[in-house]
Amino acid sequence: MTKPHSIYLSFEDNTLLGALFGGHNQNLEKLEKGLGISISSRGEMVALSGDQKKILLAESVLRSLYERLERGHDVQPGDVDAAIRMLSQPAPSHQPKKEKKPMAKNGTGKEGKEKRHTAPHPAKETLEKSVIQTPKKRFTPYSHKQAEYMDALLSSELVFAAGPAGTGKTYIAVAAAVALFCDHQVERIILSRPAVEAGERLGFLPGDLKDKVDPYLRPIYDALYDMLPAEKVLKYISTGEIEIAPLAYMRGRTLRNAYVILDEAQNSTPIQMKMFLTRLGEGSRMVVTGDLTQTDLPRDMKSGFRDALEKLEHLEEVKVIKFTAKEIVRHPLTTKIVQAYEKHDKPSKWENG
Description:
The chain is α/β, with parallel strands linked by helices and 353 residues long. The chain has helices spanning 17-21, 26-35, 52-70, 77-87, 122-129, 144-155, 169-182, 209-227, 230-239, 270-277, 304-312, 332-344, and strands at residues 5-10, 38-42, 45-50, 98-99, 115-116, 132-133, 138-139, 158-162, 188-193, 242-246, 258-262, 285-290, 318-322. Helix 10 crosses helix 11 (304-312).
């Protein structure tokens, strides 16, 4: 049986430790459970015990979160999961090294006397570099794929994001739109969805047009309220600086100096998708998100999302991000449910296999 390793960490600013450890040490408990190690704290000291690779990972997570607190940002329980996910996937060439030099502070046993290599971790640099700041929230990636997506949203004119629910496709796209809007890089935000979900037809729904389409667009409203104060959302919607509309309302328009998002694009037809993409005007950016395993179109109708991916993926100006179940950041059971469905289905190259 392999002998457990132990390392001891200390943090200079005691005032940050409450936020680092979490209420009732919930962040430390999450690390313990997620990595299968033992963690104990006393004052500014933290002791990690268990498999050597896992305790080194836990150290990287704690130091990364501590540095975030030093920069004035908060740490939420979800940030612990994000750091574990990111830091457990180092660049292929990254190999942790050790120096046979005594630590200034050590515990009992030889295992605690080795000083570890502290060169920057590639994933840690990604966590610090890939950031989207909105008035109410600061977003850092939960996976390398999310980091790639965030970079594309802030730099590319046209981005396609394909993959299962729970990977942050729409939520992060709205965050990028709000960030660029608040930074005056775009003049307005336009958010759209096809209103054809679950076989419903608008004519059969009660109320006026707004009442009919609002249920389809509710997830986008929810995202906006997470990123902007409520009074700002209402103000921008009333002035037209934020526009939320069904896909059909895009016809005949040229969208200039705008950040345009088409969500649930798997429910668009090829004609609708072509219409939407050709609305792109000067100074604008477009993001198209969808999940081809959740198409509500008639069986004999090809999805415009699939059609666009097949036709445009080779264009240099187009960035395509393909998420899989591994990038789901909702409840862990969500990932298992998606993987169970994938196991029994045979997805195409653009689906979630």
